[in-house]
C-alpha cells in the first residue's frame, strides 16, 4: 500500500510526514515537542 508519492529528502522531512499522517488518521502529533525530564525541559524532534 502506498501512502504518498513523495520521498523524504532527510530525517526531518520523514518526521514531518509521519506527524502529518498521524494527525490525518485522527491522532494528535506535533513536531518539535518540548518535554520535561528529570534534567529539565528539552525539545525533541527539533527542526535544526
Topology:
Elements: H1 11-24, E1 33-37, E2 40-44
Give a summary of the structure in a few sentences.
This protein is of the alpha+beta class.
Summary keywords:
alpha+beta, 48 residues, two-stranded antiparallel ribbon
Could you describe the 3D structure shown?
The protein is 29% helix and 21% strand. The protein has 48 residues and is of the alpha+beta class. The protein has one domain (11-44). A two-stranded antiparallel sheet has the order 1-2. A hairpin with a 2-residue loop joins strand 1 (33-37) and strand 2.
Give the total of beta strands.
Answer: 2
- Overall mean confidence score, pLDDT: 88
Query: How many domains would you count in the coordinates?
Result: 1
Oligomeric status: single chain
Order of helices and strands: HEE
Helix content: 25-40%
| Beta-strand percentage range | 15-25%
From the N-terminal CA to the C-terminal CA, the straight-line distance is 31 Å
Sheet having the most strands: 2 strands, antiparallel
Net shape: elongated
How big is the Rg? Answer: 13 Å
Question: Spatial order of the strands in the main sheet?
Answer: 1-2
Q: Low-confidence runs (pLDDT<50, min 5 residues)?
A: none
Number of alpha- plus pi-helical segments: 1
SSE-based structural type = alpha+beta
